[in-house]
What does this fold into?
Amino acid sequence: MNLNNYISELIEANQGWVSFASFMHEALYHPQLGYYASGLQKFGPGGDFITAPELSRFFGMTVGRQVKQVLDVVEGNVLELGAGSGKLCRDILSSLESQGRLPDRYLILEPSESLAHRQRELLSELSPQLFERIHWLRELPEQFEGVIIANEVFDALPVHILKFDNGETFERGVCRSSEGFSWSDRKLSKEMEALAPEPPSANSYITEFCPAAFGLMNDLASVLSSGAMLIFDYGYEADSYYHPDRVSGTLMCYHRHQADTFPLLEPGEKDITAHVNFSLLAHAATDAGLDLIGYCNQAQFLVNAGITTLLEEIDPSDSAQYYPAVSAVQKLLSSDAMGSVFKAMCVSRQVDLTMIGFTDGDRRYRL
Ligand SMILES: C[S@@+](CC[C@H](N)C(=O)[O-])C[C@H]1O[C@@H](n2cnc3c(N)ncnc32)[C@H](O)[C@@H]1O
It folds into this structure.
């Protein structure tokens, strides 16, 4: 069966309509047919999109400095969610090794079998002393101490779509039509009505809403007994997320580095993402008993945590190394590229620290 047929049957079995979150869940995570199930390359120049760890090893090396500071006081391990190609794990472990602070275990929770396989391939090239610390999990541990890392994971969680129209709120879902999959709006279910945010001021407005992000945050909060969670992703605070100009939401698809806004076309063939609402995510964390100890632009985090110091360690006369490294770091820091729409957030339990990554440019007041 192909994914189109599978989703069509799902729609039929559900009286002709499924939420966009169900559609997105199948499109990305169907265990055999979803986008993340296929063995095709997703990340980097030969894939569909590029993430910070793919752009430069200096991202992971810098995150490693922040991780070390937490491990110095918590003495725990590292748990990475959705580890992509494995490069972030490789770079954080190398950084921790060079700082003399290797954890006993570096855990990876990766729902995609095919990505976990790729990660194993890449990471098996590390020295045995690093590789033996890496363990793949199928589910969260019951309890965890240390540092949890999620880079571009929350933007990949299935979202519901809400449509606000002249005082009424609808959920935008998916049905079948002669042209394939089509949008179809319904009155909100009682369950969604209880969860949905207040309507924005504009009369006609479409936005995404991600209860799965609160669910994941709750799950993580319940296992984190002491330590910190570092979240890197693109997104906004609530007032920017619901900015009156953003009337059609933030949903984007990526295929071969081309962006489009047609998620109902070719499900399973392309990535689908939505920007993260950091205000809602921060509130979910504090409601779950965590402390919000840092929030700033990703570029600011990287500068605070010493990315430029790391760059200084390369000899500028070694132009083959130096210029590509500088150019990639510039992309990480530039506000036109990854610098400002990407944010870094840290929530913690029982950690009394001034985190090196959040010393300047604090934006918690915006959440
Ligand atoms: C956009 S990719 C980012 C990959 C990688 N972190 C990077 O930055 O290159 C999203 C990743 O999140 C994973 N993912 C999705 N839902 C997840 C969940 N509930 N828990 C852990 N990982 C998840 C996906 O399988 C995928 O590896």
About this structure: The mean pLDDT is 93. Residues 3-347 form a domain with the Rossmann fold fold (CATH 3.40.50.12710). Residues 36, 43, 51, 53-54, 81-84, 109-112, 115, 151-153, 156-157, 216 surround S-adenosylmethionine (CB under 6 Å). The chain is about 35% helix and 25% strand.
